[in-house]
Design brief:
Layout lengths: L1 E5 L5 E5 L4 E2 L6 H17 L5 E7 L5 H12 L3 E7 L6 H6 L8 H14 L4 E4 L2 E6 L12 E6 L13 H8 L2 E9 L4 H9 L2 E7 L6 E7 L2
Parallel strand pairs: 4-5, 4-8, 5-7, 8-9
Antiparallel strand pairs: 1-2, 2-3, 6-7, 9-11, 10-11
Amino acid sequence: MNVITPTADGSNTLYNETIGEHYHSKHGALQESKHVFIDAGLKFASDAKSEISILEVGFGTGLNFILSFAYCTENNINLNYTSIEAFPLSTDTLEETGYSSYVPEKIWGSFITRYINALKSRQTLSSLCELEISHTTLAEFNTDEAFDLIYYDAFSVQHQPEMWSDEIIAYACSFLKPGGTFVTYAITGKLKRALKANGFTIEKLPGAPGKREMLRGLKGI
């Protein structure tokens, strides 16, 4: 069961009672998504590009996706977005988040009407955006596609330690193109070592409100 929970910036998140954790920071769901994934991830990785492919680990509420969709639409960037979600939320739950107010109505409408189909196959949401949500675990996920950017947005290591093992981090990074970007809200010595072992250069960046630092990794060419 998931319970709607207000956060400090006025945006909502969900509390996942099975995992025992919120989907987003209680200090601000919208702030965190913008800071970590849009500002430190998408804006950085899409600089001077006309198209970008993103792999997201943990689709959750869809907040990272709709903000990415809006940013790419505004900047005329072709967005190919693939996400992995083992436990997808219902359309009704997504509607209850109130996230429709954070993006243009056309973007939200296109997303919410195609969400269920995106769990089955790749969907065209606009002339600039395609979405596919793989209804599986990261360990079971596979594709021949290589991505420019990974949003690593799994639940925390305290609540989902299997998602932060050296092996699963290496597996996720195998889908990233040489020169690609890995971005996440978390930063630990173990995670930094795992990325460095896979040829990444690590950047420590200021974290979203409530968190001192976050991590961005650049895969070696």
